[in-house]
Amino acid sequence: MRDFATLYLDLDSSNRTNDKVAFMVEYFRTASAEDAGWAVYFLTGRRPKRPFASTKFQLWAAETAGINPWLFTECYDAVGDLAETIALILPPPTETNQEGLAWWVQNVLLGLAKEPEENQRRIVQESWQHLTTPERLVFNKLITGAFRVGVSQELVVRALSISSGVPQATLSHRLMGDWTAGSLFFESLLSLDQDSSEDLSRPYPFCLAHPLEGEASSLCDLSEWHVEWKWDGIRAEVIRRGGNTYVWSRGEELITARFPEIAAIGDRLPEGTVIDGEILAWSEGRPLPFAELQKRIGRKTVGAKLLQTVPVTLITFDVLEFRGEDVRAKPLSDRLQILDELKTTGLVEVPMPKTVNDWSELAAIREQARDLRVEGLMLKRKSSVYGVGRKRGDWWKWKLDPFTIDAVLIYAQRGSGKRASLYTDYTFAVWNDERQLVPVAKAYSGLTDAEIKEVDAFVRKNTQDKFGPVRTVTPMLVMELAFEGIQKSSRHKSGIAVRFPRIARWRHDKLPADANTLEEIKRLIPD
Amino acid sequence: MSFAVSENPKLLSLTDRGLYCEVGDFYVDPWRSVERAIITHAHSDHARWGMKYYLCSQEGEGVLRRRLSPESHITSYAYGEAITLNGVQVSLHPAGHILGSAQVRMELDGEVAVVSGDYKTAADATCTPFEPIRCHTFVTECTFGLPIYRWQLDEEIFADINGWWRENQAKGRCSILMGYALGKSQRALSGLDPKQGPIIVHGAVHAMNEAYREAGITLPETRRLGELPAGFDFSQAIVLAPPSVQGSTWLRRFGEVSCAFMSGWMAVRGAKRRRAMDRGFVLSDHVDWPSLLGAIEATRAERIWATHGYTNILVRHLREQGKWAEVLTTEWEGEQDATEAGAAEQEESA
Fold first, then answer.
1. B276–chain A nearest CA distance, Å
2. What is the separation of C-alpha A36 from the centre of its chain, rounded to a whole number of angstroms?
3. Which residues, numbered 110 to 149 in chain B, qualify as contacts with chain A under a Cβ-Cβ cut-off of 8 Å?
4. Domain C-terminal end among B281, B300, B326
5. Are residues B164 and B268 in the same domain?
6. Size of interface A-B (CB pairs under 8 A)
7. What CATH number is given to the structural domain containing A42?
8. Which residue has the higher pLDDT, A156 or A388?
9. For a Cys-Cys bond, which of A5, A78, A468, B291 suits A135, CB 3.0-4.6 Å?
10. Which of B233, B253, B281 is at the close of a domain?
11. Looking at residue A417, which CATH number applies to its domain?
């Protein structure tokens, strides 16, 4: 565990990408295959089920440290991270333990969930006695599942590629889908043998677009570009292999059972086909609001009624495998032709409303996006291959400008991780008919570090009341919020719900009285 | 406005100028101008300008004079030396915080009160170690009065610092080690391995080093920027500087750098990240939680006053242990996170 804890702290404390990669390369080169396999598992954001509630975890820690629960809460408040708080308050270990990460995961962690509570407590407390403070931090993180250390899967793949010589695209592909770090996992991950029988259900890494910066016309010749709507649904890959259908979400979750309509589309595809598309709640020739689709997302299985009220469909826009052959390296124009052939199997086709002649015409079409409940346009170079991850230059998303409103800061809460002990999570309000401030959105991002410090100082000076970790502050600060969508909502006091709210800028020039009214905001809701 | 701190209000009380001994007619670390001030140590939140007469420990006179002005009227006494001020018996005892830091013991009619100033009980090669004193009333700091704060041994921390320096040398990066110019820097210096490469100090740190050396403290050889030849290669060097240099143009001359900060606050990762440091070393000149409780226990005091730090928490905890404890609101600050203005000001005055 010591080496992995060192790696964790090195990654955690480093701000430089190259250093992070170097730390991982060093670890992968020296760790045992078993340890390295589990390291890949956790570093790529996978985690076993949480074995017990975090309240129990806190209780056992306070008990071991010999402190009262209120004192534990004070510590947690100062640290802002549960795993770290526990690691810090425990008395020094009585013994050390030389076992590696894999031993701890396989012998302690994975079995915990099945144990009765009394055993869980004993196992956890005994484990703490054998671990140093950094090791405890990592051990606690593995249990709570909040294992984020500022490396993306892409960086892990880069490090693996450097340490093994296996190409990054191969590694990315092998890391897709459902797997756990069993005993031979790491060897097969780094196997140079390309023909090793790859899992039939395994999806390809999604190719992602960058937001378009500057003018669309800077992309020059419109004829080189393929244009389509940017749908607001769930990106998905549908696989038909070995007589089975697999539907994967962008979050690499297998969602076949949740969307039987999509599975049925997959069942009609010829053997050896993989298509990329967007799942949308769909009715009368256009998408339903995203909130409707959300009703389907949370369900593991769907009832007949929901199938009827929120039917879904798949808008397809790419093909990655055809007749058992990986076609990602073919130009987009060729892949679209293949997709056309597949349309005969019953795929929904929603082409652009008409062909366009120049960029200004296209810009005008983009303006219709909101009425059509799409987010804007996608621009893809016709000659482009289907790349791995987010590559610049060939795929652009040209989204509509967000909605913006001016709202007043009324509640603040401390952040976690990097933002622990700084007030960074804010709730904003606007005026209702009775000139009362009602909360409309929470926003966590958009301010600079210097501004966050300024708001933090403001919150501390202007606290009116405290409810647990939340502080009510004197309504004085006005911020411009941007968001992507707005819908009616019966779950919110304001009667509305906004999507992806963030702070666009701090309106130093405005007073709370100048903030928007709820009435004005409701007018933004599309029909 | 004034209220009793010791049982006899004439021994120790809190006034709007600071902690006051009425019979002895002196203050301890006052925050406004007074006639006579006993200074626990030379950090600027405790040793302020504008007092007519200063009293401090002999060990601390040199640093205090540098922090105040050469004209300041300072009288110093050896640790443990008994002084009588208008019938009050006063003596200074080592606090182990920085060179010359003292706890102030005062006794009147058999009642003893002790003001700790800032203190630590762990070893420090650059000052006399802390001495526990029996008393009835104990005024204690509690900068790090939370169970999350437990310090490692100095040897381990210094090994980490020297190791970080070596890593940077291998990468051709200059090591910038930041900490308070007075106390922290000298303690760190005592743990650096001068065989590893050149040790360079910021002007503010140099001034305090001189005071330490004059007081007989051995520190490794250091060099100032002005002494270095043009075109000096900083890639193998370590530079000791106050935290105020972070993000300043002063840092540019060193080429590629790795920055580290030494403070008890570095125990928490969030604090480290907020400072955008490459490394944080948990090196504190204050007591950690177990030592704080141990030090309080050792005084066997009946009345415990908690000043600057997690006062409410310490008081609640002590009361649960059946002790008499209260919060004492002062203008002392203890160790600043240095994201705040206090520390920067302190460095200005260095």
1. 8
2. 24
3. 146-149
4. B281
5. yes
6. 63
7. 1.10.3260.10
8. A156
9. A5
10. B281
11. 2.40.50.140
Residue A312's CATH number: 3.30.470.30
Name the least confident of A23-32, A68-77, A105-114, A415-424: A415-424
Q: Which of B147, B276, B280 sits opposite A67 (nearest CB)?
A: B147
Q: Yes or no: say if B346 and B45 are a contact pair by the CB < 8 Å rule.
A: yes
Contact (CB<8Å) B270/A67: no
What's the pLDDT score for residue A150?
79
Domain count, chain A: 3
Q: Are A355 and A488 in the same domain? A: no
Domain membership flag for residue A265 = yes
Q: Which residue of B has its CA nearest to A418?
A: B270
CB contact under 8 Å between B147 and A84, yes or no, is no
Question: Nearest C-alpha of chain B: how many angstroms from A139?
Answer: 16
CATH number for the domain spanning B210: value is 3.40.50.10710
Q: Are residues B161 and B132 in the same domain?
A: no
Asked whether residue B269 falls in the same domain as residue B174, the answer is yes
CA distance A88 to chain B (A): 5
Best mutation target, B144, B146, B321, to test chain A (most A CBs within 10 A): B146
B62 & B134 share domain:
yes
pLDDT at B131: 97
Tally of structural domains, chain B: 2
Closest residue of chain B to A14, computed from CA coordinates: B278
Q: What is the pLDDT of residue A353?
A: 57
> Is pLDDT at A107 greater than 50 in this prediction?
yes
| Statement to judge: residues A235 and A373 lie in one domain | yes
Specify which residues B84 forms β-bridges with. B89
| A76 and A127, same domain (yes or no) | yes
Q: Do B150 and A67 lie within an 8 Å CB cutoff?
A: no
Place of tokens 């991850």: A389
SS3 A231: coil
Interchain contact, A13 vs B278, CB within 8 Å: yes
For residue B158, what pLDDT is reported? Answer: 97
Enumerate long-range contacts of A368-373, CB under 8 Å, 24 or more apart: A369/A229, A369/A230, A369/A400, A370/A400, A370/A526, A371/A526, A372/A229, A372/A286, A372/A287, A373/A232, A373/A286, A373/A287, A373/A288, A373/A289, A373/A526
Last residue of a domain, one of A399, A430, A455: A399
pLDDT band at B342 (very low <50, low <70, confident <90, very high): very low
CA–CA min distance B74, chain A (Å): 38
Q: What percent of chain B has pLDDT over 90?
A: 83
Query: Are A356 and A412 within one domain?
Result: no
Q: What interhelical angle do A133-144 and A82-89 show, nearest 10? A: 150
Tokens representing residue A474 in the block: 């004197």
CATH code for the domain in which residue B291 is found: 3.60.15.10
CB spacing of A75 vs B146 below 8 angstroms: yes
Range of the domain at A358: 207-399
What letter represents residue A461's amino acid? K
Q: Are residues A93 and A49 in the same domain?
A: yes
Do A463 and A393 lie in one domain? The reply is no
Do A513 and A479 share a structural domain?
Answer: yes
Count CA within 13 A, CB hemisphere, residue B232: 19
Residue with tokens 């002063």: B250
Return the pLDDT at B134. 97
Phi, psi of A386 (to 5 degrees): -90, 100
Q: Does A14 touch chain B (CB under 8 A)?
A: yes
State the smallest CA–CA distance between residue A70 and chain B in angstroms. Answer: 9
Cα gap A372→A367, rounded to integer Å: 10
Q: What is the pTM of this model?
A: 0.73
ipTM value: 0.90
Is the CB of A79 less than 8 angstroms away from the CB of B148? Answer: yes
Distances A244 to A273, A313, A360, B196 between C-alpha atoms, Å: 11, 19, 45, 64
* Structural domain containing residue B249: 154-281
**Which residues in chain A touch residue B150, judged by CB atoms under 8 angstroms apart?**
88, 92
Closest approach of A419 to chain B, Cα-based (Å): 6
Flag whether residue A74 sits within 8 Å of chain B, measured between CB atoms.
yes
A305-309, B28-32, B233-237 — which is least confidently predicted?
Answer: A305-309
pLDDT band at residue A344 under the 50/70/90 scheme: low
The pLDDT assigned to B343 comes to 36
